[in-house]
Amino acid sequence: MRYLRYAFLGTLGVILIAVCLANRDLVTVSLLPDALGELIGVNFAINLPLFVVILGAIVLGLVIGFAWEWMREHRHRADKSKAEKELHKTKREVRRLKGKQAENKDEVLALLDEAS
Hints:
Protein name: Lipopolysaccharide assembly protein A domain-containing protein
Structural class: mainly alpha
Coiled coil: 73-107
Order of helices and strands: HEHEHHH
Domain Lipopolysaccharide assembly protein A: 23-94
Number of domains: 2
Strand order of the largest sheet: 1-2
Distance between the termini: 42 Å
Transmembrane segments: 46-68
Keywords: Cell membrane, Coiled coil, Membrane, Transmembrane, Transmembrane helix
Number of strands: 2
Largest sheet: 2 strands, antiparallel
């Protein structure tokens, strides 16, 4: 299974390198369309190789997706934390009740009850 993963990663690396080499031409990336940029007074544009734009868009999409999922799953993490606190509280209560129950018993019987 490990070799299959290495083969996949190697193939993916070769494909990405081929895409990068095939798309080395410069493209202009603008913040806003020209007419809107002139109207507002913000005309930001930069020349980048096309492969940088493609790989940057992929990375940006992954980051946005991970952040979106992390925010979406907040409720699940909060529920899990609440359940763990309640479980811990219940375990303490059971331990306390077993301690009260063991006060009237023989020490050997109390130890056997704790073990089970």
